[in-house]
């Protein structure tokens, strides 16, 4: 255990970021499951997503629950009235309340791929062709049946309606078997149709099942009489899913591997409609909602769609959907300053999508990029030869998005830059392309980088030929170029425009950073780099430009001083993306070495680093600073990481150069084990909060921590008393409420109850009691002998301004004080100055003392000598402070202007 704790202490996860949740994940290749909740009277659809499953309501397709993650990907999904059964690897788990695992079934020696809830039991089939029947509550095996893989390879399973204790099995050889699982008997064998069975579905009629074959044939079969009622043939490949309408229309829907759905009329025995391109990939599952004209479909293209059949012709129209990227996203950026929308461009598809971190209903799909939108609509998506390639980079701005397009995007290997309209959720009206290449289209020139100004009026486009062009976003007209011929002698790798449209900065493969005047296109400054740049990212508010180099280093250029002010090195792979925190203090970088690192710009140190299983290809920090979003290699989702510094204090210690980061799993993809909690608790005390000592060093002057109101108003008490003078005398209340007596002062304290009654007391005033000396007076008297003034100083610290004035006024001989006590007070001021603590209090107390007793001090030689000594000490202390201030200002000026 000690070795484990030591290893975790050496390798810790991220201190700044914690996994929050995933966006844009809706479905994979497994068929969905539809459940009905009797109490809610609502249908729910359950889909598998990697290591967990999601539950949506059918009414609005709003997400209801996300299950706890499993250690392996889900291989099969099933559900009954109470539980959701999930197969992962060799295990089967039962989830309750769509959330936590309540049962685990262990016994298979191969991967489980078929599940069937069966009353109080559950049936599972693995790849070794072993069928096991489990008792759901006891988690014990009820029955195990082994099939010969060469003769009967189980490929489908179902329970025929009204057939007590019986299940129907389909095989990849084409035969069917009817079993009584209670008596463990094979009741009947169906010869089949010389093609593998891929789907078995119960028809609305008793004894009738729908059988989908790998040959594309659909058989409607009566299993009671072993009689085929009807046959249908689909030419789109094997049947992947079958469902029957139950709302009074005799219609059967069948899915195909190419994404088409065929609708068959069971009375006329003919095809009545085709739903082509319902999905981009194979139809994983389709289900008609019981008693409603709704069809739910899902597929591996990361989409769930609900179709409604309310129009003539028999076909369904899309009612609602949840669509994510069908290919891994390669570029993500926050849109706007509220941090609620994330724009994302997908791989191998020229699509642009917007995901909301609030709710899925706010998601948008801006569609496919096309060379000619009208021709593309006529041809359809399947045969569209005018689709644009994948988007490599884009920039967005919300300033004028209600007036014209606010997004510009570059496409892979494409010269033209497209514009997009976020509010219209479609591709824009302009294609930004310079006229210089119209006559020579054979040139292999493409757009490499793009940026849009903060005002939303101009777009700057960089080309692989070294050109840098400016376009007007409203008209799409070309408004000039940077440089006489070219901006760089090679491809432009990155560009950025500052927040005030004053400067444009570009970096090229010629290892140069060039800063241009935005309006006049004049070259202002050039900085040479040690290595070729790969990308740039500008924080407009602070003017810090991050430049990723091909040697895996990161340079920070200050746009104000135009110098490289920071150099960060530590990545061991290509730097994929960079992001700044909203205040510009942190730079977050992701690399192909699968790490995400956070650098602190003021200190120039690495303060956070964590390792991932898959490299982050793109990251973006929310403008509000609450979330970091990341997209990863071969992953369809966008993952949110919450910023821990907004919730609790985090110690940002610089990490050592030999720091080895620990692997952090993506949000919602790994179960948190109990052992990990224990280790975290043991090692969490490493991040100890810094406790400042009372005095950092003897050479430094230390101020007190008291509020300003305790000492700043000491010289203005007469003005305050005059201002707060009551207008009328206080009135005695008729019946005063009971309360505990308190001692007057800044800190309320309960006083001791007076046991003697006030009725028997004498009304004669005892002047000896009035002349009683205070605790502060006694402390000053004792300090004359002991020379220890700590007690007297601590008493003054606990008093209010009025009490302090009363104490200092009582030091004079004419009101009961003495010259010795006044000397002791001046010696107390000298001791405070010598200790270099409470410098502000010493000045305030001395100023009030001089204001009250200046005439007496000038008349007494002993007090004058002490006053001169105090004046000398104050001048020495202030001279020392002035020298420290000058040193600090000089050091700050050097750090700001020096080349580090």
TrEMBL record:
It holds the Pfam family Beta-prop_WDR36-Utp21_2nd. It comes from Lepisosteus oculatus (Spotted gar). Coiled coil: none annotated. WD repeats lie at residues 276-307, 485-526, 568-604. GO terms for biological process: rRNA processing. Residues 694-896 form the WDR36/Utp21 C-terminal domain. Gene3D superfamilies: YVTN repeat-like/Quinoprotein amine dehydrogenase. Keywords: Repeat, WD repeat. One of its GO terms (cellular component) is Pwp2p-containing subcomplex of 90S preribosome. Residues 45-310 form the WDR36/Utp21 N-terminal domain. SMART domains: WD40 (SM00320). It comes from the Eukaryota. This is WD repeat domain 36.
